[in-house]
Specification:
7-stranded mixed beta sheet, alpha/beta, about 15% strand, Glycerol-3-phosphate (1)-acyltransferase
Length: about 240
């Protein structure tokens, strides 16, 4: 069974600020959600398409807008218990970034540079044990290409330790063009946020095979890999 979702994690005043920020993101770049594998309305044993159950979202990483794009594409209720995982060295660098990370987005900050002793995944495990959903970027750093870089091992360890939590692949379309590395302002193009079918670690699957399969699950959501994507999404 999936752990019960924790109560909303952001104070209502900060939640309003967060929602205003995400509305601005939607106005600028769209962040239209596209969900694959939706059953006919009223079908029995339908997968959860409202994300009201705990899950681990894992996505390609193309820009500083990635976290905001995924949150903007989620139903408002789901945002309340979804926590992005992000690098402390970036989000703790200035007061404004720190305010956004801690007050508005309730980010799980990790030490990706290993500047302190201990396992960087400890705060992520604590968030999952508390019932939060999380957003993770397994590449570990932003890429500039359509295809994600090789995935690092953190996703494998979380899948192994929390086998009851579904893994939901996400592909962010166009963000490497909208907000490329070094850009200060977004290019006004349309971003779509593609959500795939839930994944899980297979019995006896080793780390290398799992990470390769999860990377392929993200790549398979790219429109150029799904010629019938528009028809499927409209069905």
């Amino acid at each position: 069974m999936t752990a019960p979702l924790c109560p909303p994690l952001v104070h209502w005043w900060f939640a309003r600020q967060r929602d205003a920020l995400l509305m601005l993101v939607r106005l600028l770049i769209g962040t239209y959600p596209v969900r694959y594998g939706q059953p006919p309305e009223g079908a029995a044993n339908a997968p959860d398409q409202t994300f009201r159950t705990q899950r681990i979202f894992f996505s390609n990483h193309a820009s500083h807008l990635d976290t905001l794009a995924i949150l903007a594409a989620l139903p408002r209720e789901a945002r309340s218990w979804t926590r992005p995982v992000a690098a402390r060295d970036y989000w703790d660098k200035s007061g404004l970034r720190r305010y956004g990370a801690q007050r508005l987005l309730n980010v799980v900050l990790i030490d990706r540079l290993h500047e302190s002793e201990g396992d960087p995944l400890v705060p992520v495990r604590e968030a999952l044990k508390a019932g939060s959903s999380i957003i993770i970027f397994p590449e570990g750093t932003r890429g500039s290409e359509w295809l994600p870089q090789a995935f690092k091992g953190g996703l494998f360890h979380l899948a192994h330790e929390f086998p009851h939590i579904p893994l939901t692949p996400v592909y962010l379309e166009n963000l490497q063009r909208i907000m490329p590395k070094g850009a200060f302002l977004p290019v006004p193009l349309i971003c779509k946020v593609h959500f795939g079918l839930d994944q899980a670690l297979l019995p006896d699957e080793d780390k290398a095979a799992f990470l390769l399969r999860m990377r392929e699950a993200v790549i398979d959501l790219a429109p150029w890999r799904r010629p019938s994507a528009a028809a499927e999404a409209a069905a």
